[in-house]
Amino acid sequence: MITVLGSEVVLAENITMVTEFLLLGFSSLGEIQLALFAVFLFLYLAILSGNVTIISVIHLDKSLHTPMYFFLGILSTSETFYTFVILPKMLVNLLSVARIISFTCCALQMFFFLGFAITNCLLLGVMGYDRYAAICHPLHYPILMSWQVCGKLAAACAIGGFLASLTVVNLVFSLPFCSANKVNHYFCDISPVIHLACTNTDVNEFLIFICGVLVLVVPFLFICVSYLCILRTILKISSAEGRRKAFSTCASHLTVVIIHYGCASFIYLRPTASYVSNKDRLVTVTYTIVTPLLNPMVYSLRNKDVQLAIRKVLGKKGSLKLQN
């Protein structure tokens, strides 16, 4: 016999199964949440405007129709959806007393969040390979990074990202969740949710750790090897200007890689038993809010091609307004 009571389902064996979760988020901060709402809303709008600007400029300026900027456009698109999965719900919860999320919605949020996050990791690896091909094998670059190859690589990143996400979400939500339903986080992340399971989670956590190694460590090592080859090639360039120009095309990518992989590795490449809510929440804010904000800033402020393209697009719009 099954009885439904509020957010719980009580089975005949007196085991209470959770049907809803309570996202604690920043509730312990009291009135400071209003200030956080204003700050996070501003940052979210900045993320949207920055990434939309990058996507639009790459689409409109033909000089940016190259593999490097194709992948940057895909990354910006993925970052936009990545933040959309988390931030709107977080902003609503900052102003709400009832921070309820259903069991199904929690699983879906984790699935899409991890899907886009892992896709981003794989895309950064592919972007590292693109820089390697461009600098180390410039004569073969048109063949190595043809549009057909670029399309297949982008599709592989998305498919691989969401398949890995589906695996992890299945490992988390296949566990039984009994009476505990308070998620000590502002969204349904792996560690705070799996902590609520009312059974031994060692096997599931180990398999999730293996997935983390595959999607974080393997692409990062691939990027490191790519940049070692790039560095060796750059050092062989005789002119200082040539070396500076070659390295400048990699600096933006390296900056994003260090921040993204650094924060993600800190959270996911360790046992969930070592989860510390306040410290981990701060790091999570970095890779869910700061990193998506830094991507367009880094690529626009440090990249002269993007800066020039933005000025060209804005100049065209200005001239059209004058003509009208």
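The above is record 1. Record 2 follows with the same two-line structure.
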Amino acid sequence: MERINSTLLTAFILTGIPYPLRLRTLFFVFFLLIYILTQLGNLLILITVWADPRLHARPMYIFLGVLSVIDMGISSIIVPRLMMNFTLGVKPIPFGGCVAQLYFYHFLGSTQCFLYTLMAYDRYLAICQPLRYPVLMTAKLSALLVAGAWMAGSIHGALQAILTFRLPYCGPNQVDYFFCDIPAVLRLACADTAVNELVTFVDIGVVVASCFSLILLSYIQIIQAILRIHTADGRRRAFSTCGAHVTVVTVYYVPCAFIYLRPETNSPLDGAAALVPTAITPFLNPLIYTLRNQEVKLALKRMLRSPRTPSEV
């Protein structure tokens, strides 16, 4: 009978993040602004890369444009649903909606991990092998690498979604989290989750550890190469180009490792940590890449000035 009842579950209730009721409106407005600015900031990056021929022909900025698409996607998957927790009434998420949210989050999240690795490799080639860089990192190769990252991310997301929702869920249906993620959903399963937890730990652990190790190795070589640059201006430009990527990678990987690569606990810090890759990082990426990247800032200035050029001439 329990097995029959497990098929009757049609929705989950996301409890959201704990907050004082008197701050309900403030939190709603805060995350609404975060969401709007995230979409506008990443859209601006996309338009700038696409409109400036000096940028969209270079692999580094192709990767940056793809990163903006991913950030817009992750924010759209998570933040609007999070904002619903700051409105009146209980708003359940359909079972299929929960499956889709978990799949797309892990699909885009793992694709982002692979993309960060490609960006580090691109910087390694540009700084450590500058003469061979145009031959080694062509536009065709960068497009193939991006396609491979999307494919690998899709497989990873599908694997995690299938493994999570193959289990029976017979109630309760209250997910103690602000979105459908693996650890929170697995706590509601009416079956042994040991295999799922092991596969999740190994799968995500391999993705995170391998990507982070490759990024680390790339930047060890990059730092050694930068220190060999004789001019202070050259060193400053190299550090400026790489500094944005290092900042973003650090902000992204630390909370992900905290959530997925430690013994199972139901800590209130999990929700706070999860806000970083789901809401804060997509918001910060455009700021980091525009404030710390001189080429993007110059492209933005050229784009903003271009409408006035005909009249000036």
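The first strand starts at residue 11 and ends at 14.
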